[in-house]
UniProtKB/TrEMBL annotation:
Protein family according to the UniProt entry: Belongs to the GTP-binding SRP family. FtsY subfamily.
Parts forming coiled coils: 260-287
Organism: Pseudolactococcus hodotermopsidis
Catalytic activity, EC: 3.6.5.4
Upper lineage: Bacteria, Bacillati, Bacillota, Bacilli, Lactobacillales
This protein's encoding gene: ftsY
Name of the protein: Signal recognition particle receptor FtsY
Length: 377
C-alpha cells in the first residue's frame, strides 16, 4: 500500500477510474477524509494499551519517544504547515484553474509550479516526468483527475524515500552531536530535546562545545536550567574538544542516558570546522567506539533552497545521520523536506514547530504530508 492510500484511505486513481467510469468527476471530499483520519486514530489508541510488559521492557527505545497524544501532534503539524500548505495550495489551485488540456505546455507549467513551490529543480523535473507517464497511463483528462494523479504521485514519492527517520537511541549512553550554521536553531533544539528526554525519565547531559560565540554557552546554560538537566561548559575561547572530552567522561562514569553536544557552525571557515568536528569525533570514539550515534544537521526551513546548499556543504565536512528542520511554523517553504530527502538521501528526523519548549516533534511523514496538502484536497 502506498503512502497515499495509507494516509487518505483512498483507492488509487486507476481503480477509482474503473469504478467511476459512468461518473464525470471523482468524489474526493473533506468529510470522507475526516472519517478516515478518525478511524486511523482509533486504531492507534486501541493498540497502545495492548503492549505487554515484556515489550515495554525491551530496549526498543525509539517507539517510546512520542509521549504526546497523536491528535495533539497532528494538530501541531497542521498548524505549523498552514503557511506552507497555503502557498503550496494557492500555487497549485491557480495552476489548475488555468487548466485547459493535458499537453506539453501543461507539463511545462506544472514543472514551473513545482519549482516555485520549493521542490527543487531536479525533483520537479523527475516528478513531472513521472507524472507525464502516470497521467497518460491513467488516462486522466478532467481537472479533478489530473489534480488527483499529481497529489497521489507526490505523496507516494515521498513515502517511498525508504529513509529511516527514527532516532538511533541506545540502551545505554546515546551521544548526539548537533551541527549547523549560526542562528538555525541548534541550541533551541537541544534545549527542547533535553526537556523531552528528561520528561521520559532519562538522565540527560548537555555539552556546550560552541566556545567561540560569546553568549552561546549562556544560552545553552539557560536551556539546561529550563529543562532541569546538567551541562558541561568550558571557558570562552577554550578548546571545544576539551569540553566534549569532559562531557563524555562524565556521561560515561555517571551513567547518563543521553549526551547532547552543541557545536559552533562557521561555514566561512570550512577547514577549521572540519578539523574541529573530526577532533571531537575522535575524542568521542576513543571513549565510545560506536558514537556519536547521531550527527544531526539543523536547517532553518525559512531559508528554502539555501538549506539544501548548507546540507551539501556540511555533508562534505562531516558524515550526517539526520536533519532537524527548524522553524517549520514560520515558513512557507516546508516543501523543502521533499527535496532534502530525495536529493541528499538524508532523513529528516526532527522538526521544530515553534519556539516553545514542547515545540519539537519526531518527523512523521504521514502527518507532514497531510499538513502539506490540507489546502489542496
Ligand atoms: N518559530 C520558531 N523559532 C525557532 C525554532 N527553533 C529555533 N527558533 C528560534 O531561532 C532563533 C535562533 O535559535 P538558536 O537555537 O539560538 O540557534 P543556533 O543555531 O543555536 O544559533 P547559534 O547559537 O548562534 O549557533 C531563536 O530565536 C529561536 O527561538 C522553531 O522551530 N520555530
Amino acid at each position: 500500500m502506498g503512502l497515499f492510500d495509507k494516509i487518505f484511505g483512498k483507492k488509487k486513481m486507476a481503480e477509482t477510474i474503473a469504478e467511476n467510469i459512468e461518473a464525470d468527476v471523482f468524489s474526493f471530499d473533506l468529510s470522507d477524509l475526516a472519517e478516515t483520519s478518525e478511524s486511523e486514530r482509533e486504531i492507534v489508541t486501541v493498540v497502545e494499551p495492548e503492549i505487554s510488559v515484556e515489550q515495554v521492557a525491551e530496549p526498543e527505545i525509539q517507539s517510546v519517544i512520542q509521549s504526546e497524544p497523536e491528535t495533539q501532534i497532528e494538530e501541531k503539524y497542521e498548524k505549523s504547515l498552514k503557511k506552507t500548505s497555503k502557498s503550496f495550495g494557492a500555487r497549485f489551485n491557480e495552476f489548475l484553474a488555468n487548466f485547459r488540456s493535458v499537453d506539453e505546455e501543461f507539463f511545462e507549467d506544472l514543472e514551473d509550479t513545482l519549482i516555485m513551490s520549493d521542490v527543487g529543480v531536479d525533483v520537479a523535473t523527475q516528478l513531472t516526468d513521472d507524472l507525464r507517464r502516470e497521467v497518460k497511463l491513467q488516462k486522466a483528462k478532467s481537472q479533478d483527475d489530473v489534480k488527483r494523479v499529481i497529489i497521489e504521485k507526490m505523496v507516494d514519492n515521498f513515502g517511498e524515500s525508504g529513509l529511516d527517520t527514527s532516532l538511533n537511541l541506545q540502551e545505554n549512553l546515546t551521544v548526539m552531536m548537533f551541527v549547523g550554521v549560526n542562528g538555525v536553531g541548534k541550541t533551541t533544539t537541544i534545549g527542547k530535546l533535553a526537556n523531552r528526554f528528561r520528561n521520559e525519565g532519562k538522565k540527560v547531559l548537555l555539552a556546550a562545545a560552541d566556545t567561540f560565540r560569546a553568549g552561546a554557552t549562556d544560552q545553552l546554560v539557560e536551556w539546561a536550567h529550563r529543562s532541569d538537566v546538567e551541562i558541561v561548559v568550558g571557558k570562552e575561547k577554550s578548546d571545544p574538544a576539551s569540553v566534549v572530552f569532559d562531557a563524555v567522561k562524565k556521561a560515561k562514569t555517571e551513567s547518563y542516558d543521553i549526551l547532547l553536544i552543541d557545536t559552533a557552525g562557521r561555514l566561512q571557515n570550512k577547514e577549521n570546522l572540519m578539523k574541529e568536528l573530526e577532533k571531537m569525533g575522535k575524542i568521542i570514539k576513543r571513549e565510545i567506539p560506536d558514537a556519536p550515534h547521531e550527527t544531526l544537521l539543523a536547517l532553518d526551513a525559512t531559508t528554502g533552497q539555501n538549506a539544501i546548499s548548507q546540507a551539501k556543504e556540511f555533508s562534505n565536512v562531516t558524515p550526517l545521520t539526520g536533519i532537524v528542520l527548524t522553524k517549520l511554523d514560520g515558513s512557507a517553504k516546508g516543501g523543502i523536506i521533499l527535496t532534502i530527502q530525495q536529493i541528499l538521501q538524508i532523513p529528516v528526523k526532527l522538526v521544530g514547530l515553534g519556539e516553545g519548549i514542547n515545540d519539537l516533534e519526531t518527523f512523521n511523514e504521514e502527518l507532514f504530508v497531510k499538513g502539506l496538502f490540507q489546502d489542496l484536497i
